[in-house]
Task: structure prediction
Amino acid sequence: MDISKFRQFGKKIICIGRNYKALAAEQGNPIPKSPIVFFKPTTSYITPGDDIKIPPGCKEFFHEVELGVVIGSGGKNVSEDEAMDLVAGYSCCLDMTCWDFQCAAKADGQPWALAKGFDTACPVGDFISKDKVKDLSDVRIWLKIDGTTKQDSSTSDMIFTVPKIISYLSQYFTLEPGDLILTGSPAGAGPVASGETIEAGLEVNGETVSTIKYPVK
Ligand SMILES: CC(=O)CC(=O)C(=O)O
Ligand SMILES: [Mg+2]
Result:
């Protein structure tokens, strides 16, 4: 599956929030009882070579590196045991966030659409085939800004596993080939400014399986 075709057939970008224990502690949020779900429009996709653009009015622009799960086979009401059969592969993704917009929305009980769905809010990396990641439970996920490490964690800190997320989502949304599921940010999500460059990556058993690099404008 060619990642650059997401725009053509990517039907949904479904995002999970607050899915890492250390991030919940860092941001003072309770451990959720079920996955926190929101969407990004497919117009938010950018692929390597594009620039991340800070939306007008955003004063606190945050990075969040996330494991993206690419759906290859559709499904509805899928059990956790069947969930991984739907997965085609993965991608190193960013859930770029207007943190100030998000905090204002939370305070007002408003949705996060502007905070999370703006153009360039979903930078993705190359497609990683499923067989490259034998064990999802301990994938190292990291992010640097201009060479300084800001996030460096493991999927072992996830609250809801990938099979649980897929099964849970499939109760509400029919999952389709080309859908992308962002599985949440580890601790260390924080500000990035115009003129800085984000690098991020996924590592399995010490082997880098994906890296991405995106300038912020
Ligand atoms: C705290 C948030 O912005 C929710 C989210 O996107 C996450 O990855 O956690
Ligand atoms: Mg996120």
In short: The first strand starts at residue 13 and ends at 17. The longest helix spans residues 99-108. DSSP finds six helices and 15 strands in the chain. The helical segments are 6-9, 21-26, 80-83, 99-108, 113-117, 162-170.
